[in-house]
Hints:
By secondary structure, the protein is an alpha+beta fold.
Amino acid sequence: MKTVQSRAPYLLLALPMLALSGCGSSAESAAGQQTAQQVLYTADTATVAVPLSLPAQLYVEHDTWVYARTTGVVESLYVDLGSEVRAGDLLAQLEKADQLIAAQQAEVAYENARRELERQRSLAQSRLVAVADSERAELEFRRAELGRQQARRNLELTRVTAPFAGAVSAKTIRPARLVAPGDSLFRVTALAPLRVAVHVPEGAARGIGVGSSAYAAGLDGAGARATVIRASPNVDAASGTREFILELAPGARMRPGASVTVSLGGERRQVIAIPAAAVADSGYVLVWEDGRTALRAVTLGARLRDGRIEVVSGLARGERLAQPR
Length: 325
């Protein structure tokens, strides 16, 4: 009886130990199954053709200051900053009283000289006038004609007009202000066509030429397709680049002077790519490391044609990823 009683506690202790040992094996098996279920993706490489991204600024061919071409006081203003104009539209009028009187006097002198010339020519046919008188009449008529042209020109210069269609992008003129030849009055900028100049490295410029397609994206998200319209035949020795001029498609909702990023051409390179489902909405991935998952921020690039996403930084090839929750 004593022997049985002494052994009973050991038997009772052994049973829990066996039970615990069985539970440990089940936990390890479940953990292994859970690991197999969580590791769903592997970061791999892909060969892609990535367009060049080049910063630049939009411009237009027609963009100029309008200067005063005669002396005068500003009499009237017809446009303001931002006004859209057509070629020849009147922007401002300078006082023109003196020029108008001079033009009328020139017209009278011209008519008198013309009538005198006709009279001299008629007398010359009848041989009733000397040759010198006839030549003098011809000379006076020519002087009167040039005087009339000059007077008309002086009168026209009091009108400040738009040189081409566009918008008033700057204005320095004020009413009743005295201006002199050379004073800047308005700046007129055409609204289209928008163009951009980019300098492409020599190696990447292969395959790019007149007619090549591109895309220009603005800082505000607006963008437009573009086409190469001119290409420099030479490589700049200092920078090792070639210059390309692109023209944006009509209807682009951007303004001259805006900063854009031009995507042009493409070069083949190796990138790290992962399935889109491996990326959480917050831009993180779950990386399986040392038997557990860890959150890691990644920088994503372009979406590839096979549905995967380029990883610019944050992952290396072969790393295993879990399904984000």
